[in-house]
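WARN retry 2 of 3 for item q-0093 after timeout on previous attempt; input resubmitted unchanged.
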Amino acid sequence: MTPITWQWLTFESLSNHELYQMLALRSEVFVVEQACAYQDLDGKDPKALHLIGTLNGQVLATARLLPRGVSYPDAASIGRIVVHPSLRGQDLGRKTVELALKQYQKLWPDEALLIGAQARLTRFYEELGFVAEGEIYDEDGIDHITMRWMGHSAV
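OK item q-0093 returned
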């Protein structure tokens, strides 16, 4: 596995370089690769705690952890989970989510946790302790499903 350095940063503590790379990675995967024109800059990043994984000064993995009331009225959330395409197949997506779950448990152990998962990744999230809620819905042309973390993964 690639030796990634992980750190949690508030929006204010992200350097311009880190912020630029994080947004560029999200755009590369979510907008270009997935051919999905959507508004990534949704006003939530300043309210988030950001996990970035770097190697040689390059942001190669990221996720954001949002407190209750930002994405869901009664639950915290993890979102914008992305790993650079060149590093796929190394379980870095799983590592990113596991680190986000650990931080969530540390900060808000009594809060519910919901995610808006791409439906094609349902099994991946189920393996991490999430359970699907409700029906599949379209978000920006991609099937999504709300999933709740039940707290019984190997985190």
